[in-house]
Amino acid sequence: MRYLAGGAVRRRAMKRAREDLAAALLARVEAGEWPTGMRLPTQAELAGSYGVSRHVVRGAIELLEQRGAVESRQGSGIYARGALIDYHVRSRTRYGENVEREGPPTRIELLHLQTCRGDDAATRALALPRGARVYDLHILRWSGADPLCIAHHLFPADRYPDLSDQLDGIGGISELLSRLGIADFRRSQTAIWARRPTRSEAEMLRVAIDSSVLSLEGRNIDMKGVPVEISRSIWPASRIRVHV
User: Fold this and answer.
1) Which of 102, 148, 159, 214 is most solvent-facing, going by the fewest CB within 10 Å?
2) Buried b vs exposed e over 154-180: b needs ≥16 C-beta within 10 Å?
3) Where exactly does CATH 3.40.1410.10 map onto the chain?
4) Can you tell me the distance from the alpha carbon of 202 to that of 209, in angstroms, rounded to the nearest whole number?
5) Of 2.40.50.40, 3.30.300.20, 3.30.565.10, 3.40.1410.10, which CATH number belongs to 85-243?
6) 39 has which bridge partners?
7) Is pLDDT of 5 > 60?
8) How far apart are CA 78 and CA 241, in angstroms?
9) pTM score, whole prediction
């Protein structure tokens, strides 16, 4: 009986040690000490730093993987991963409301803006003649210190001739559309599919080249039903849960 009781005590102590270590590691991830995509110290290094066994470290890492805070990459190590975002696709989908409800404040980084001939899919979605000119606004969205998604936003160039003059200090696409005179809009179409990232996408999103990303394509229309913008965004599949 004493042996069984002693075994139960040891199991409880081991469980507590794993949970305490997981909490300590999670705090460092959430504080940005290990931002998304950064490799954590090895299990041996963590065991030495915290004065615990590697068995405790493995258990703590498993807990963090279950919570989505880290991911194991075979042959490479353990990497920090941002918090899971619940993204709700509704008739009035707003990126900022979706993401900031779930985590840190967001910001956008303007990568480039170009005017080009829209491809057939883009001109059809925007109800434009084939080959019509569109603005292609390429941005990187951040949540706190973590890159969250890469997006191309396509706008009818002839409808918004001064779009390039409205970009200074914008906090998001809703604000940009408001500056362009679109007081309200709604989502009319959304398509979602999974694929592998390109090398540049993997580097920008800080994910493994053999991981999965979700591509979301949406079309927004004004309250008269006229298309105002289409978006093509790429998200790490491990960081987003889409609700439709």
Assistant:
1) 102
2) bbbbebbeebeebeeebebbbebbebb
3) 85-243
4) 6
5) 3.40.1410.10
6) 79
7) no
8) 22
9) 0.74
Please classify residue 22 by burial: count the beta carbons closer than 10 Å to its beta carbon, then call 0-12 exposed, 13-18 middle and 19+ buried.
buried
Residue range(s) occupied by CATH 1.10.10.10 in the chain: 2-80
For domain 2-80, say whether CATH 1.10.760.10 is its number.
Answer: no
What are the residues facing 143 on neighbouring strands?
106, 146
The single residue listed with the structure tokens 């709604």 is: 186
Closest alpha carbon to 110 in 176, 181, 180: 176
Residue whose token pair is 């914008």: 170
Say what angle helices 2-30 and 43-50 make with each other, to 10 degrees. Answer: 110
Token pair 């066994």: residue: 53
Which tokens sit at 141? 């969205």
Select the more confidently predicted residue: 50 or 3.
50
Which among 237, 188, 241, 187 has a CA at the least distance from the CA of 215?
A: 237
